[in-house]
Amino acid sequence: MAYWVNFVTTGNPNGKGLVEWPAFDPEKARTFEIGEQTGSRTVAEPDKLKFLTDYLQSARLLRGSILF
Predict the structure, then answer these.
(1) What digits encode the pLDDT tens for the residues 46-66?
(2) CA distance 4 to 10
(3) How far is residue 9's CA from residue 35's CA, in Å, rounded to a whole number?
(4) Which of 2, 39, 42, 65 is 20 to 30 A from 15 in CA distance terms?
(5) What CA–CA distance (Å, rounded) separates 9 from 6?
(6) Alpha helix (H) ranges present in 1-68?
(7) What would the pLDDT profile of 26-44 be if each residue is shown by its tens digit?
(8) Distance between CA 42 and CA 59 in Å, rounded?
(9) By C-alpha distance, which of 10, 7, 8, 29 is closest to 21?
């Protein structure tokens, strides 16, 4: 929650005692994960992301709800 509070109040999610959330860089395939392990992570390769997106979309469509 501290990241969100910092972002809403200052426009910057970073703060004392938090793992630094780096600024977005379109040249790097990085994302920021908040959970058991918080930090910057490499995004999966585009073909893996497409496979997962296609799978999730088809699974949702089969159940009658649209993902995207």
Answers:
(1) 888 889 888 888 887 666 655
(2) 10
(3) 22
(4) 42
(5) 5
(6) 2-10, 46-62
(7) 788 888 998 888 999 888 7
(8) 26
(9) 7
- Find where tokens 């969100």 sit: 4
| Amino acid, res. 28 | K
CA dihedral 53, 54, 55, 59 (to 10 degrees): 100
pTM above the 0.90 mark?
Answer: no
Sign of CA dihedral 43, 49, 52, 56: positive
Radius of gyration of the chain (CA): 16
* N residues, the chain: 68
Query: What are the tokens at 20?
Result: 């630094």
